[in-house]
């Protein structure tokens, strides 16, 4: 006999709205309405917050969405009030309320401001747009730093002569343009991270509603502040307090984010934990991740090695590094051996023992998994070798150890690369599964802060034909 059938109906907001039960013997169906769920759903608080929170909150978003939004709302409130104080200063500088003010001068000043701002937008987007996704937390905070810089310049401008005031306001507008590019891009990336259910459009729409309410509250409170704060000293005290609060709230907001994709710093923190047999999740790594300073939680030797790593290097850089290890004939042999060693991989890795500079070449179409594997290989290579200052010209490894526990026996870097590659290939499959279980998304890896070069292997027969 078939068992009884029970169906639970879930509403669009994620709450249970009905239960249907089918009796297998009689074929009768009865429905039950969970009154306690309905009553809790129709409370005043839920009704008031539903226009501002995504459906299914908090299950439809990541755990770090709530603290981020709280601090983001507070910083927006402080920024709105500070913006009104700065706007008043700009109006004074432009001569609003003054009989001697020139409409033509004001219009020309406005055109100059807009020109500098729009040129800055184009230049900044061209130069830094590819870096924002890799260092989204830094650029989210950077956006508010340049925004506050713009507010300070606005408040300084009235005390300057006309030419200097025009230049100051132009720089101020350029700072706002940088804020627009960095802030807009980083917010879009964070929305993708927060949208656990893929509800990015709804999340952005609700975020816009939140910003609208916060801006209105800030304008109302700012109107009171502007009406009652007039003196220069009082204005600056109020402005600096607001800007300090704004940056502190922004720092807390950005610091609460726990990204699940790997950039170079998160990868370095993660793999340093693996060295101690610890698989850290995004929450633990995010707590150690720096915002303004990179690799702050790593020991000095590891941090220095990661800073000397070039990801997406050119083939010419690889040849240059390899040739430095010996004479020309030996160096060319090493290049051939290296290409053969990494023939099955989507990357090529080499560390120059004379300069401790590392280059990582990436194959065209390399996957996120392979990028993470390449970074893990680099960390393993650092583990097995102590990369000293360039003037020592040696690699420390082996069983002859000094007081620091490291060897003074030179090791062929090609042998070292082969040895560590074998270890990585042995460990990576099981390690990647453990990392995914810990919450990491290895399919989308952002190790590069700029779009680097790619290499492509050609069939041997094609090379002969071309010659």
From TrEMBL:
InterPro entries the record matches: RUS_fam, UVB_sens_C, UVB_sens_RUS_dom
Name of the molecule in the record: DUF647 domain-containing protein
Cellular component terms (Gene Ontology): membrane
Keyword Cytoplasm: no
Residue ranges of domain Root UVB sensitive protein C-terminal in the record: 332-449
UniProt record similarity statement: Belongs to the RUS1 family.
Protein location: Membrane
Main location: membrane
Lineage summary: Eukaryota, Fungi, Dikarya, Ascomycota, Pezizomycotina
Domain Protein root UVB sensitive/RUS: 41-273
Superkingdom as given in the UniProt entry: Eukaryota
Keyword Transmembrane: yes
Sorted UniProt keywords: Membrane, Transmembrane, Transmembrane helix
